[in-house]
Specification:
- The complex is a heterodimer.
- By secondary structure, chain A is mainly α.
- Helix content of chain A is 67%, strand content 2%.
- Chain A is built from 25 helices and 4 strands.
- A two-stranded antiparallel ribbon of chain A has the order 1-2. Chain A has a two-stranded antiparallel ribbon with strand order 3-4.
- The model of chain A has no long low-confidence stretch (mean pLDDT 95).
- By secondary structure, chain B is of the alpha+beta class.
- Chain B is built from 7 helices and 12 strands.
- In chain B, the strands form 3 sheets. A 5-stranded mixed sheet of chain B has the order 3-2-1-5-8, with no helix packed on it. A 5-stranded mixed sheet of chain B has the order 4-10-9-6-7. In chain B, strands 11-12 form a two-stranded antiparallel ribbon.
- In chain B, a hairpin with a 3-residue loop joins β11 and β12.
- The chains are: A mainly alpha, B alpha+beta.
- Chains A and B meet through α3, α10, α11, α12 and α13 of A and α1, α2, α3 and β9 of B.
Chain lengths: 830, 352
């Protein structure tokens, strides 16, 4: 390909602008291709750690009455095995893979908030090391990955705090990634990539991102209550003081069941990319798949009670949740049959990724079918908490998540290394993993039916489980050998793999246009079909010649296109930040808060919090909503786009909207807790226990309303050019927010409420803590806008900050007013 | 390396020869259970692999309710196997077969048929069948007997109401009359446990602050193993008990004995060691009730649900209970001289 000197110069500048820093500074990189790789390697690292824990479990259970590990070590090992696999591998690997490949798939140069990805990664790494490391000191969590109180609240040592705080911290990373990925799919698609031309992977990312926003917050709310009970003795789960351990089970499983689909759907998404490629034809039933992914996501929130069938619920609940659990098999079935249909119509190219796909199907089908069985409540009464369930869940997770992910690794390995994995070694590792897995887990169905409960450190030789357990252990080690071979293949092929060229599998989707470039692609093409590389043979050469949009980085700044949500019409050139240390500093600061709090080192925790806040504000101040040196940029083909947008046209506004949706869910989960106590107590609020009264909550609510109105007025005034008025209104808003906070704090203090007396004052105070935290954050934001305005970084034409803060206040308003109505109003109307 | 501060492993079972975990000799004759051919087929599979294991098995039901669930299991398993073969067979066929191109319409029919119509019909039928087996919990009809089970870390306090109005307390075993309708009233003072006797029926959690009800209708006499199914701490694996289903007349005899106060015996050594602080022996020692009631200790088949009730095993248990049940609340009495320990053993073995 010959290039004019102009184009040559343009390309070099693009490369210079997006090149990663060298040496130690490489760690300050925020670009998705670097973060994605780190993220994937870290997640697999934790997975190997979790796998070793699994092998310890299997070694201990190989023979009856074994004493390889003591009972308390065993409790730590299985708790950590589940925790690591779920929180440090299964969910993060989705985020990792998506961060790596999504931008290329959509034709973006990067995700819209690179520093948020970096921040999420560092949170994940710090939190993960903290949680995993605890076992080397014998203080790992030991109450099971589900942490049921009262065992975990009243009898656990530091382990429970490590679990709660460490994982809350990682959940922050998950939500950060979800926000990032959702905005990426909605706003950063290539021009012309209408929503219904989006690669299926993008759809799955949207669904899963949405699920994370509604599933993780209830757990965060639960964690908050749990930690308040452990640190401050607020009795949410203590029955002697009006608490109820089942509240935790509800909050945990409202998270925990969607979690299964949060893990499963991204893996299915990989299959939806791989199968068309190897069938050599477009996917069959695109709309069916999109609708059923949405359906699965929706239904998965109505199933959580099937984890609680044996807690003594009424038959009507059992029947309802049995039926809902069966119903979710239908959208899942549609997706699988769409894959089979695609394969049927195509001509299959044999390859290691396809081998993994078939292995995944064979395995997941077993898990799905046993899932249908255990969803029938009477059968669940027998097998719940037995090895039958252990077998079932491993078949779903390994078949539905690990095998597809490994298919994805084999498929995308050439994408990010430029080399292919060895076919022979790949096939060997597949067969070892597949046979080892089945040898390990198929017999467990029977072990469970013969009465072996879960989480037992050992068993009597006379129970007849010895042979089955020995077989399972042998299988587990074969499985591990297969996985080790896979890892070895990945490492060796880095140097020795055959160079794969740009599109080794002859795929049709956009990411294969130019794999492995820091800047995504040479220029951004217009997209007119779902498989652009198949449908437009000249697309690659045109794009690589720099004939698409935004072919340059003339100003030396990293830029990507922002398009409209539905039709992907270009609306903005978004300047994305380059390398910097602030995300890492913020992650370490926030990590310090959680870690020091675990060890009750409150002064250090407070110092870390200040460090975090400083890093966070510096990050925003120096990198977001910067006023560009010129208003617009010509991106080629006669398209001139603004460099600055505010309000709903900007990515920041969407990020705020999405994040606050998750935040609102957490708040509603706390409100759910309030009403849950109302349903379990015949008299609520209980007589003789002081409540918040209605006066102070009412005052707080009114002041919240005032602060919201002042912020809104400030935005309107600023937009009309009344800058001084807007500044005054921001200042007044700060006053109103602080006043509202004081009023909410006054409610329990002046009414003499004692949060450790009973669950009622405790839940009221937890709601107040939540509301006040939001009001204070709102005050900081108002102050930030004021400072930006004074510093000349926010003007009537460049008011993205104020738009985002106003949006925040819409949610804070609901939080304050609805919260006041619940704590102050509800007891009055009873 | 992994256990940090606690490197030494607990000796769970110190002497295989003298003291073994419970269970081997308690198997019931297999033909007494099997009335159903499908179950019999399953049993063959089990026998091939596991040997004599019926007493804790879901596949060897000893009540009609449990048998109905086992039948449900075999029906579902057969169906699942057929579906697995069909779906995976279709996938393999689609992958390997070389044939004239089918149309997109055919593929959509595959999705509609396989993904929507077939599962809807099958799952609907399964729900009608499966949910029909849901127990009808509620006080619509009175049980023949009510047994209160209080699950504590890591043992089972079992209380029967005697006709006279008093209570009879047992521990780590439930004795039931064959053919009776039994309601278990399940509670816990500490953490969540789950009460489960696999051959008799499904499990039910015991949750602090709540009272759960479980109805079982055992109708095959025999001894079955019960176990805690919900993780409850380091001793969880050892929170076992036995369920003895007796002919009604035998049950009446057993119950009559249990209502009696203890046999006259000399509790001096027992009291001197402080055992009375936790254990009650009706008629002899009535101070504490933290631990199991030992009034008819010698009539029980196990010690703490985990050891055969023999004098040797009892001596070892008293020596160091945590060797058999990690994290157990009972302290060890290794510091007692042998003669005092023997006196306590001798005393307890008299409490028929």
């Amino acid at each position: 390909m010959t290039m004019t000197p102009d184009k040559e110069e343009e390309l070099q500048q693009l490369q210079r602008t997006w090149a990663s820093p060298k040496g130690l500074s490489y760690l300050s990189e925020v670009n998705n291709s670097a973060i994605g790789i780190w993220y994937i390697c870290t997640a697999f690292g934790f997975m190997i750690f979790g796998g070793i824990l699994g092998l310890i479990i299997r070694a201990q259970l190989a023979v009856p009455e074994a004493t390889l590990v003591s009972s308390d070590t065993y409790s730590q090992v299985f708790t950590l095995h589940g925790t690591v696999m779920m929180f440090l591998f299964a969910v993060p690997i989705f985020e990792a893979v998506a961060i790596l490949i999504l931008p290329s798939m959509l034709g973006a140069r990067d995700l819209p908030f690179p520093r948020l990805s970096a921040f999420g990664f560092w949170c994940f790494l710090i939190g993960g090391v903290f949680v995993c490391g605890s076992i080397f000191f014998g203080i790992a969590p030991d109450s099971g990955w589900f942490m049921y109180p009262p065992l975990s609240t009243e009898q656990s040592g530091l382990g429970a705090d490590i679990w709660l705080l460490g994982l809350s911290f990682i959940e922050v990373a998950s939500i950060a990634a979800a926000v990032e990925l959702i905005v990426g799919v909605l706003k950063c698609r290539a021009p012309g990539m209408h929503l219904n031309l989006t690669p299926l992977y993008g759809w799955y990312v949207l669904v899963v991102g949405g699920m994370i926003l509604f599933a993780f917050p209830p757990l965060i709310a639960g964690d908050l209550l749990f930690e308040l009970e452990r640190l401050m003795d607020w009795p949410f789960f203590d029955v002697s003081r009006g608490g109820d351990p089942l509240l935790w089970q509800h909050l945990f499983w409202i998270f925990g069941h969607p979690e299964v689909y949060i893990i499963f759907l991204p893996a299915i998404a990989l299959l939806a990319m791989i199968i068309p490629t190897f069938s050599g034809r477009p996917i069959v039933g695109y709309s069916w798949i999109v609708l059923s992914a949405l359906g699965t996501g929706f239904l998965s929130f109505g199933l959580w009670v099937h984890h609680m069938f044996t807690t003594g619920l009424p038959s009507i609940s059992l029947g309802f949740f049995s039926a809902a659990s069966e119903a979710v098999a239908i959208p899942t079935g549609i997706q699988l049959f769409a894959f089979i249909g695609t394969v049927m119509l195509g001509r299959v190219q044999k390859s290691v990724p396809m081998l993994w796909c078939l292995g995944a199907l064979a395995t997941f089908l077993v898990g799905g079918l046993t899932g249908v069985m255990v969803a029938v409540a009477p059968f669940d009464f027998q097998v719940h908490d037995t090895y039958f369930i252990v077998a079932h869940l491993h078949y779903t997770l390994i078949g539905g998540m690990l095998f597809p992910t490994l298919a994805g690794v084999h498929y995308y390995y050439p994408f990010f290394t430029g080399r292919a994995l060895s076919f022979r070694t790949g096939a060997w590792s597949f067969w070892l993993c597949f046979s080892g897995f089945n040898i390990a887990f198929l017999p467990m169905h029977l072990t469970g039916l013969l009465g072996m409960p879960r989480r037992v450190v050992t068993y009597g030789a006379d129970r007849g489980w010895s042979e089955l357990n020995m077989i399972s252990t042998i299988g587990a080690f074969i499985f591990a050998a297969g996985f080790a071979l896979f890892v070895w293949n990945c490492l060796v092929s880095l140097r020795r793999g055959a160079p794969s060229g740009p599109n080794p599998w002859k795929a049709g989707t956009l990411e294969w246009l130019a794999p492995g470039l820091d800047y995504g692609m040479r220029s951004i093409p217009r997209i007119e079909s779902r498989y652009p590389l198949w449908d437009d043979p000249s697309l690659v050469s045109r794009t690589m010649a720099g004939e698409g949009l935004l072919a340059d980085a003339r100003e030396g700044k990293r830029e990507t296109l922002v398009t409209s949500v539905l039709d992907a019409v270009p609306v903005q050139v978004l300047r994305v930040p380059g390398p910097g240390w602030l995300p890492m500093a913020a992650a370490f600061g926030l990590g310090g808060v959680f870690i020091f709090a675990t060890f009750s080192l409150y002064w250090l925790a407070a110092a870390s919090a200040v460090g975090y806040l400083v890093a966070q504000i510096a990050w925003l101040w120096t990198g977001t909503a910067l006023i560009p040196e010129k208003a617009t940029k010509d991106v080629g083909q006669g398209v001139v786009l603004p460099l600055y947008r505010s309000g709903p046209a900007s990515t920041g506004w969407w990020a705020m909207f999405i994040m606050m949706t998750g935040d609102l869910t957490a708040f509603l989960a706390l409100v759910f807790g309030y009403f849950f106590f109302w349903t379990v107590h015949p008299e609520f609020p209980p007589a003789g226990i002081a409540g918040p009264g209605w006066q102070w909550p009412l005052t707080g609510g009114i002041l919240t309303l005032a602060s919201w109105a002042l912020t809104l007025a400030a935005r309107r005034g600023n937009a009309l050019g009344h800058v001084s008025t807007a500044r005054l209104l921001c200042g007044a808003g700060i006053g109103a927010s602080l006043g509202a906070s004081a009023a909410f704090v006054a409610a329990p203090v002046l009414n003499g409420m004692d949060s450790s007396l009973h669950a009622y004052p405790a839940i009221v105070c937890a709601l107040i803590v939540w509301i006040v935290a939001h009001l204070l954050t709102g005050a900081i934001m108002q102050g930030y806008c004021l400072a930006r305005s004074l510093a000349g970084k926010m003007t009537p034409d460049h008011d993205a900050d104020l738009w985002n803060v106003t949006l925040y206040w819409h949610f804070a308003l609901f939080c304050g007013v609805f919260g006041a109505a619940v704590i102050g109003g509800f007891p009055e109307v009873l | 390396m992994l256990c940090g501060g606690n490197i030494s492993f607990r000796r769970l079972v110190p002497h295989q020869s003298t003291t073994r975990l419970k269970g081997a000799d308690d198997c019931i004759p297999i033909h007494s259970v099997i009335r159903n051919r499908r179950i019999w087929t399953g049993t063959v599979i089990v026998m091939m692999i596991g040997g004599c294991v019926e007493s804790q098995s879901v596949l060897h039901p000893a009540s009609d309710d449990a048998a109905a669930i086992t039948r449900l299991f075999w029906v579902m398993t057969a169906g699942a196997a057929v579906i697995w073969i069909m779906v995976f067979g279709a996938a393999i066929f689609a992958t390997l077969a070389h044939r004239p191109k089918s149309s997109e319409r055919t593929a959509e029919m595959v999705i509609l048929g396989g993904g929507v119509i077939f599962p809807t019909v099958t799952l609907g039928a399964l729900l009608v069948y499966g949910l029909g087996l849901l127990p009808d919990w509620g006080p619509s009809d009175a049980p023949d007997i009510t047994v209160r089970v209080h699950a504590e870390q890591y043992w089972w306090r079992v209380t029967y109401e005697s006709p006279g109005g008093g209570e009879v307390e047992a521990a780590n075993e439930v004795v039931l009359p064959s053919g009776a309708v039994v309601d278990f009233v399940l509670t816990s003072p500490d953490v969540i446990h789950s009460f489960w006797i696999p051959p008799l029926g499904g499990k039910m959690d015991t949750i602090p602050g709540r009272v759960n009800l479980l109805r079982l209708r055992p109708n095959v006499p025999g001894t079955y193993q019960g176990i805690c199914a919900e993780f409850c701490g380091d001793g969880h694996a050892f929170m076992a008990f036995e369920a003895h289903v007796l002919e009604p007349s035998e049950f009446e005899r057993w119950f009559a004995t249990q209502q009696q106060p203890a046999e006259p015996a000399d509790p001096t050594a027992f009291l001197a060691a402080g055992c009375g602080g936790c254990h009650q022996i009706r008629g002899l020692v009535e101070q504490g009730s933290i631990g199991p009631d030992l009034t008819h200790f010698a009539s029980r088949s196990t010690i703490a649900g985990v050891l055969d009730n023999t004098p040797d095993a009892l001596r070892e248990w008293l020596h160091d209970p945590s060797a058999f049940k990690p994290d157990v609340r009972m302290p060890g009495y290794a510091m007692l001289p042998d003669d005092e320990l023997n006196a306590i053993v001798a005393f307890l073995e008299q409490l028929e």
